Amino acid sequence: SNNNNNHPQFKSGVNNADNKFDDSFVRRKKIEQQRRSLPIASVEKRLVEEVRKNDTLIIVGETGSGKTTQLPQYLYNGGFCQNGGIIGITQPRRVAAVTVAKRVAEECGVELGQKVGYSIRFEDMTSTSTKIKYMTDGLLLREALLDPKLSKYSVIVVDEAHERTVQTDVLLGLLKGVQKKRTQSSIGSSNSYDHMKKGNNEKERFNEAGKLNPLKLIIMSASLDARGFSEYFGGAKAVHVMGRQFPVDILYTAQPETDCLDAALVTIFQIHLEEGPGDILVFLSGQEEIESIEGLVRENLKKLPEANQKLLIFPLFSSLPSEKQMKVFTPAPVGFRKVILATNIAETSVTIPGVKYVIDPGLVKVRSYSPDSGIESLIVVKTSKAQALQRSGRAGREGPGKCFRLYPESRFEGLDDSTVPEIKRCNLSNVILQLSALGVDDIIGFDFMEKPDRMAVIRSLELLYLLGALTDEKKLSDPIGQQMARLPLEPNDSKALILASQFDCLEEMLIVVSMLSVESIFYVPRDKLEESRTVIKSFSSPEGDHLTLLNVYRASVEFLEKNKTENGSDKAEKNLRKWCKDNFINSRSLKHARDIYNQIRENVERMGLKISSCGDDTLQLRRCLAASYFLNAALKQPDGTYRVLANGQIAEIHPTSVLRRTKAECIIFYNLVQTTRNYVRNVTRIDYLWLAELAPQCYALKDDKS
Ligand code: ADP
Ligand code: MG
């Protein structure tokens, strides 16, 4: 940090968007005052008291009331870390875990990673002195693998429980069990849970009597209905934190919009040019949409008279580098307006001060799984009423606001009341793998708040068998299943890495899997489509998108290394960003992919997998892809569309694919995306005969059926 706390630097006049020179004393005073004025501040004592009295407590409160940032501090000050245990707070989203941890560290006046830290997949910002630890729900599940009693925690707060992500639901069930075990256990019986070999021996937290301290469990939710959670936790007490909400004017369009992006763009400028001061928050479905609107806003802004150009654009999505994520909280300088382009991260997970106008196209991207096909896809669907209300509520936190819903009022009435929990609409193989690793073999019998669909469980189990992760007794196979459970990836990707070490192409597969973990590597502004084609072509491989991604990664590393020796590290990174821009590559995504690569490389090294390279022999890599993603194989039809072999579904190759025109006979794909049509994305050419050879468990028998 470039803030030297011992020597406050004073400066006068101009309000600077970059707070580097802000007087830290003034800033601390301001933060203190902000904290005191939060609705939750008035019930601090009562909350601490309730946690003391109840082992399980449900806290319900309006978004922005201060639950996430304040409660952990109250508990810390209330002595809940005195027994040596720490406070863990889970979030469904990485962005929330990171930004909130940074904020709380600042509120506490400590360096991030010391008393206050965060831990998310591929990034750990904690130390042995961390007492308040924000993390994703998925990460706590992984910790449970190494420490089934989560013994280092004295309190676990499951935040944003209303989101009902699949990881949250699994976690709730697991924590219920952990709580029971912790109350029963003492040193003498502490080995009864030790059904799996522990990687490292976490010291358990015992009180003077030698008993592990009980686990305090707090479920926090923004939905006002606490009944479901309360019932699930045996009638646990629920407390409500009152929020403060100003009236929000809701405006609807007269007609349904055909082009939501365009409608959002027009509305942004309408607000910017016609409405009074206040920031704009726009809800978009993902990184790609956000970046394309970002480009459009910039273009249009340039065309305005200079006096009207005072609009600052802030994207907010999960794979945004974390320095960039924090920028969104910086207040706009006087005379400027902010427009925040966010995914539904901004719906309840993070609250950005200053928002007065909300633009809600009424859509959200979700996971969707059909047990019939056994394939998961990402689809954009209408929000529920509850989500629409949350979104409009964001406009009325600091004063009266306006919400522009980009759909007619009649549509609102037809929306579902609330969102279906994710566990009802996703592929469960990852959950099953994780629970098996925790010793839970009977998924159907697991104490879920809401049971997953039986068919979905069966299909997901089937997939794990096909991947060789489970034995006939539904136990994790050794070593494949065990290794897959240890990797922080989807089962298919884990399998690809494990197989790649046998196919002598793990080096390449690490790159491919990392590149596939980020949303979009190429970024092409609308007005540069033609130009971009020629440039992108220089990376493209006739074999498909996986190899193209590999080429991009290799070219970027080569560029970076060469530049580093010539110009030093910092300059090289800067030059790389320029290189990315020239090559229509999304430098944010590429950077993220590089981080992921480093992490999973470390993971597989620790597991002892052999990392070797196939060099230019890409045949090996493609065979390995076929052997891992065999369920996602498709055959060309006479009309040029593709038929997914596993279920007969018909799809087209996505326009961004390098195989869009060449039309290979047989392909494997990474994602299935459903918009108005079915698209397969990230596609590679394979030989049909490889399927029977490399995935006989799936294709040898089915051959005569097709
Ligand atoms: P809740 O969890 O009840 O929705 P939060 O604890 O997330 O509420 O937010 C409380 C307040 O803290 C809000 O006013 C929000 O704007 C503010 N806040 C949170 N993170 C930051 C940040 N990084 N910078 C500035 N303010 C923040
Ligand atoms: Mg919160």
From TrEMBL:
It holds the Pfam family HA2_C. It is an enzyme of class 3 (hydrolase). Keywords: ATP-binding, Helicase, Hydrolase, Nucleotide-binding. One of its GO terms (molecular function) is RNA helicase activity. PANTHER family: ATP-DEPENDENT RNA HELICASE, ATP-DEPENDENT RNA HELICASE DHX33. GO terms for cellular component: nucleolus. InterPro entries: DEAD-box_helicase_OB_fold, DEAD/DEAH_box_helicase_dom, DNA/RNA_helicase_DEAH_CS, HA2_WH, Helicase-assoc_dom, Helicase_ATP-bd, Helicase_C-like, P-loop_NTPase. Its EC number is 3.6.4.13. The keyword Nucleotide-binding applies. Belongs to the DEAD box helicase family. DEAH subfamily. Residues 267-439 form the Helicase C-terminal domain. GO terms for biological process: positive regulation of transcription by RNA polymerase I. CDD domains: DEXHc_DHX33, SF2_C_RHA. It comes from the Eukaryota. Residues 48-242 form the Helicase ATP-binding domain. SUPFAM superfamilies: P-loop containing nucleoside triphosphate hydrolases. It catalyses: ATP + H2O = ADP + phosphate + H(+). The keyword Repressor does not apply. It comes from Tagetes erecta (African marigold). Residues 7-18 have a biased composition (Polar residues). This is RNA helicase.
